[in-house]
Design brief:
The structure is a homodimer. By secondary structure, chain A is mainly alpha-helical. Chain A has 10 helices and no strands. Chain A is 65% helix and 0% strand. Chain A is elongated and about 60 Å long. At the A-B interface, helix 8, helix 9 and helix 10 of A face helix 9, helix 10 and helix 11 of B. Chain A binds a DNA duplex through helix 1 and helix 2.
DNA sequence: GTCTATAACGAGATAGAC
DNA sequence: GTCTATCTCGTTATAGAC
């Protein structure tokens, strides 16, 4: 946790960052499947074996990129949530919509989409098809849940406020919903947990369709379309418009 | 459209099928990014140049695989819909649920998921991250819309029956929804078109999360979870449970 | 101790001459 | 169609510079 140490540490951090930057560049050019340590080293004027001082294997480099991507989208979501919260607190009085939590929900969804459009290759890395031959280690679990944690926070606040409008769970799903809730330790009611997980998957589905070209020749005005879809998702987790 | 022609044609069809089969096998092993004509040829005991008599380029082979995948999932959806329709017609009287169109909707969604679980690599090929350097030609547009056409049919039938329960479109989305409806020529009302496109993207999002490992350590009882989510999607397109 | 460079391995892809 | 010479890759061992 020290900020300044020897020049050694600083140099190491810089080189590590340079390697990841270059790796990200080739991720965009060739895709994750063709990420090669040698090419990264070549582009950086190093020799391939030197990279092993920084990353013990190609897969660990990939893991670092994945963790960075999760952290990046997570930070974007947290930022958007904080902004929405601040705007609601200081801001234009009681918004016309369905309360502060709803504003936060919409802001976070939009922020995730905006991040995806700005970082399409990193988005593909974490939410697209898995990289053949690579299996994510546990290191990615924590960063992967940052966005989810933001959404959980919002729903918790909504629950403490005017509550959430959700239908009861079907009996068949209840045990699974209870288990998920216990595993996450969110303190949310099981029907909220279940609705949130589904909404999150559906949100990523909307973004993926846009990003992966499935909306070509189908949806033109994507901003408007997405805004409406996110509105429906808010309804799905119990945050109706009025 | 002739079924039997010379032995030449038959041989050509067989070899073409063998090439695609082998290509699918390496798709599973290495991913679409590393699909190489040479490797396919080697595995088939041919020489790479011989393959060019069947597929003029790697990209055309990829296109053929993509078209096949779309056709495969499209056929599965059509089959499931036909089965659901037959079951409802001959079957157990008025189902307890929300009518025949709703049964068809659920059946088709389940069928798409089942197809995806059975053909994960072909699913990745069409709904996962795009293959770097490859851009899909127009040949894929038709097959890509087969599943959508099934869903459109179901909603058209529902509309002719007891109708659909959908809220009015927000003003901002109306022009886009009208344009989409006109482009597809479905004859559905614009709010149905918009809801359908969103639901389709969300359905694929749910399946992708399951298939791409995003539900690991999160959702255990995936059958039940998916069934409930599809239920909510049905509600989203105006096919409520009761 | 920390880093980089050289060299090598075994496996696979690739281009071109034949 | 075949063969060969030349690439790339990930990874390791080793030796020397700071």
């Amino acid at each position: 946790m020290s900020t300044v140490r020897g020049a050694r540490e600083r140099a190491r951090i810089e080189v590590t960052a340079a390697i990841k930057d270059e790796a990200r560049r080739m991720l965009a050019a060739e895709g994750a499947a063709k990420l090669s340590l040698r090419a990264v080293a070549r582009e950086l004027g190093m020799v391939s074996s030197a990279l092993y001082r920084y990353f013990p294997s190609r897969d660990e480099l990939l893991t670092a990129l994945i963790v960075d991507a999760y952290d990046s989208v997570g930070a974007a979501a947290e930022q958007a949530d904080a902004n929405a919260l601040a705007a609601a607190a200081s801001g234009a009085g009681a918004g016309a919509g369905g309360g502060v939590p709803r504003e936060r929900w919409l802001a976070v969804c939009e922020a995730v989409r905006a991040w995806a459009l700005e970082h399409p290759h990193e988005y593909s890395l974490i939410y697209g098809s898995p990289v053949p031959g690579y299996s994510a280690p546990m290191d990615t679990v924590g960063p992967a849940s940052r966005v989810a944690n933001v959404l959980i926070d919002i729903l918790r606040a909504a629950l403490a406020g005017r509550g959430l409008a959700l239908p009861p769970l079907p009996a068949a799903l209840r045990p699974e919903a209870v288990r998920m809730t216990a595993d996450f330790g969110t303190g949310l009611p099981p029907e909220v947990t279940a609705a949130l997980v589904a909404a999150w998957a559906q949100l990523v589905g909307l973004i993926s369709f846009e990003l992966f070209g499935q909306f070509n020749r189908v949806v033109e005005d994507r901003d408007t379309f997405f805004a409406h879809a996110v509105d429906q998702l808010a309804h799905g987790v119990g945050l109706p418009a009025t």
